[in-house]
Design goal:
About 30% of the residues lie in helices and about 35% in strands. With about 400 residues, the chain is of the alpha+beta class. The chain has four domains: about 1-50; about 60-70 and about 325-400, conserved putative lor/sdh protein from methanococcus maripaludis s2 fold, CATH 2.40.420.20; about 70-80 and about 225-325, Efflux pump adaptor protein, beta barrel domain (Elongation Factor Tu (Ef-tu), domain 3); about 90-225, Beta Barrel (OB fold (Dihydrolipoamide Acetyltransferase, E2P)), CATH 2.40.50.100.
Length: about 400
């Protein structure tokens, strides 16, 4: 700009100069023109350098979908419960005289846990025993009298009424014996109930009473609880909708159902650690819980080390069936549209990108199990998705699915 202004000044000086001054002006004017030419060349060269390069075909990484045999499993929540539970209650009234177990210890069936004071029951038994002896002593005389009267009434020595009275007295004596035997048996049973025994083998919890406590027959509160924990039940929860979908898959042939394998159950503990023993599925409940819309499945597991305690939260892995032609897609190759539906970009035979609407069953590892929208041989884009759009031509590079 300064050069241009300088040239203009020289041009104005032309009107007032002559001779040597005119010659000097034209010399300086030539240098200005030469400077403008150099600048034009530089600007032209810079314009050539900033010209955009021709567009290139984007490169994408694809995974070719191939069918594979897959065993499908379901992970269900559940809680453990005792195989057998016995709530220990007294069957007679009395005072606890002894407690004969250690809380938290294992006990065997028939082990005496508590001893109720037996003294009043021993006395009642002895009294009943004596009453039986009195009743039995009356029978022989009554029987002899009835036999004599039977002979005398035949010869009309006594009246028939006397004979009937003698027979009635005999039957009354025999009934007295039977009643006394029952009373003695009842007293014996009550005496045997004074030692409170465990009906099952298992682990006993804390005691709710101490020595000297008064207990009542068949009271509501148990004295203690014995639980058998080996084996142990695991009650699992499965939604009725999942049960229905599983039945439809098996019916349509998409899943092959092996009852023997289905009965095997694996267990994960609360911290995610696999349980060392496999269990067996026993049954599925026939009633749906109306509050949760779920059904209960019961499995039984061996528990020799007592690792599983009643009430523990666990997760069980149940085999549903085998899909012989499962199609899997890496999760990075599946996106969601504005409606939340899963979609995938696929490179067709012409090398162009097209969008497929998918139906997915579940995530297994880092892949989606696709049930609809893809066929074997489809090339799904898993790398470079953001660089392409539907209908665009792309350069395909195969990506190792294991690497992902």
């Amino acid at each position: 700009m300064q050069d241009k202004n300088r040239c203009q000044d020289h041009f104005q000086a032309l009107s007032f100069s002559s001779g040597e001054k005119n010659y000097s002006f034209f010399k300086r004017w030539s240098r200005c023109l030469a400077g403008f030419g150099v600048m034009a060349v530089i600007v032209s060269a810079a314009a050539c350098k900033t010209a955009p390069p021709p567009p290139q075909t984007p490169e994408v990484g694809v995974v070719t979908v191939a069918p594979e045999r897959t065993v499908l499993t379901a992970e269900l929540p559940g809680r453990t419960s005792s195989f057998l539970v016995a709530e220990i209650r007294p069957q007679v009234n009395g005072i606890i005289q002894k407690r004969l177990f250690t809380e938290g210890a294992d006990v065997n069936a028939g082990t005496t846990l508590y001893q109720i004071d037996p003294a009043p029951y021993k006395a009642a038994y002895e009294q009943a025993k004596a009453a039986l002896a009195v009743a039995e002593a009356k029978v022989p005389s009554a029987r002899a009298r009835a036999d004599r009267f039977q002979k005398l009434v035949a010869i009309k020595a006594v009246g028939e009424q006397d004979y009937d009275d003698a027979v009635t007295a005999l039957k009354s004596a025999e009934a007295g014996v039977a009643s006394a035997k029952a009373a003695m048996e009842n007293a014996r049973i009550n005496l045997e109930y004074t030692p409170i025994k465990s009906p099952i083998s298992g682990r006993i919890g804390r005691s709710s009473v101490t020595v000297g406590a008064l207990v009542n027959a068949y009271q509501g509160a148990p004295l203690a609880v014995v639980q058998q924990m080996d084996p142990i039940y695991v009650d699992l929860i499965q939604s009725s909708a999942e049960v229905l979908r599983l039945q439809q898959k098996i019916k349509s042939g998409r899943l092959k159902h092996d009852k023997t394998a289905w009965n095997k159950v694996k267990l994960l503990l609360e911290d995610g650690t696999p349980y060392s023993h496999d269990g067996t599925l026993q049954f599925r409940d026939v009633t749906v819980d109306p509050t949760t819309g779920s059904v209960t499945l019961r499995a039984v597991f061996p528990n020799p080390d007592k690792i599983l305690l009643p009430g523990t939260f666990v997760r069980a892995i149940v085999e549903e069936g085998v899909n012989e032609n499962a199609l899997f897609v890496p999760q990075q190759g599946v996106t969601r549209d504005t409606k939340g539906n899963p979609t995938a970009m696929v490179v067709n035979k012409e090398g162009k990108v097209e969008v497929r609407l998918l139906e997915v069953d579940r995530a297994i590892g880092d892949k989606w199990l696709v049930t609809k929208g893809l066929v074997a041989g489809d090339r799904v884009i898993v790398e470079g998705i953001l660089r392409v759009r539907p209908g665009a031509s792309v350069k395909v590079v195969s990506v190792d699915a294991v690497k992902e």
